[in-house]
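for the recovery benchmark. tokens below, seq after
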């Protein structure tokens, strides 16, 4: 008796279509914002690394395992990537660039 083959013959595994990688398991798209093209990737909560990030939209922490958005300029590098809450990224045009701080917070 010959061994059993569980996969179909003649088919090979296909390579991933996205050359930017599926490191975080999210779908990537391009958006225009502030006159620049931005790459935007949705990050699933289960696939994000165990790091905390600070959202530039609301200045609050994004806890590990929370779904969020990673955005960076088209011609930016790894250091230009920013992690946003999805709602903050969607409301980025309605928010002011001024960060609200308490009276006793340092002004730097």
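predicted aa per position
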């Amino acid at each position: 008796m010959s061994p059993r083959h569980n996969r179909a013959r003649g088919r090979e595994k296909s390579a991933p279509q996205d050359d930017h990688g599926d490191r975080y398991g999210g779908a990537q798209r391009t958006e225009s914002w502030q006159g620049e093209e931005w790459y935007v990737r949705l990050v699933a909560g289960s696939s994000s690394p165990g790091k905390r990030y600070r959202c530039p939209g609301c200045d609050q922490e994004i806890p590990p395992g929370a779904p969020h958005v990673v955005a960076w300029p088209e011609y930016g590098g790894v250091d230009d990537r920013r992690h946003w809450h999805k709602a903050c990224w969607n409301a980025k045009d309605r928010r002011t660039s001024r960060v609200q701080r308490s009276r006793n917070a340092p002004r730097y």
